[in-house]
Amino acid sequence: MSAPPKSRLPDILKSHESDLLKDWLKRQLSDTTLRSDLMKESELREQSTQFLRLFREATESGNLTDLSGAQWTPVKGLLSEISESRARQGFSPAETAVFVFSLKQPLFDRLRQEHSKDVDGLATDIWNATAVLDSLGLLTTEYYQKSREDVIVRQQRELSHLNASLEERVRELQQSRLELHEKINDLEQFEDVVVGRELKMIEMEKEIERLKGVRQS
């Protein structure tokens, strides 16, 4: 039994990297799931350029199906960052996964072009490309879900802290209100004492004047 043909995927990625990037970006920008209100085209271009380079470098190792290898760590790291970023920006899981899956068609077009006279080679590379991109797309969804859960946990923690701060502020206001009422009561009592004294002094002055009048008469 003959060995399967060697994959030409790394070489095709390298020789067509510029055209692949151009077609891939065009496909992403025309996709109805892309939220142009949530990210700039320049950001998408930067992410796509970086992913395509790391993807090509990973395939050059010859390991096209086992993503647990060290050569795929940079690719997975980038996808994790992109998923986390898009989760914060408000993208859905499907919108985030399109980033990877939309690369399929431009890549398949280049594979057909390069394997026009090699049916077996075309089948091998399309199989490899499909397998690895599907796996990366699923990973992207998993990364997104974890990032979204982290965002929710962080928001709940911030809300809990805010509620605790609010409750503490309410207690402080209630205590201040109580102290204010006590001061008002003290002031009212003081005023009662002062007024009482003044009334007594007025009465005493009147009594003195009366006594003076009696003596003079």
User: Helix tally?
Assistant: 7
What is the CATH third-level topology name of the domain at 9-157? Globin-like
Strand count, sense and barrel status of the largest sheet are: none
Total strands: 0
Reading the helices and strands in chain order gives HHHHHHH
End-to-end C-alpha gap: 150 Å
* Backbone CA Rg: 39 Å
SS-derived structural category = mainly alpha
In which range does the helix fraction lie?
over 70%
Please state the overall shape, judged from the principal axes of the Cα atoms.
rod-shaped
Mean pLDDT: 85
CATH class of the domain at 9-157: Mainly Alpha
Low-confidence stretches: none
Bin the strand percentage. under 5%
Per CATH, the architecture of the domain at 9-157 is: Orthogonal Bundle
Description:
The chain is an all-alpha fold and 217 residues long. It has a domain at 9-157: Globin-like. It is built from seven helices and no strands. The chain has helices at 9-15, 17-30, 41-59, 73-89, 93-101, 104-114, 119-216. α2 packs antiparallel against α6 (104-114), α3 runs antiparallel to α4 and α6 packs antiparallel against α7. The protein is rod-shaped and about 145 Å long.
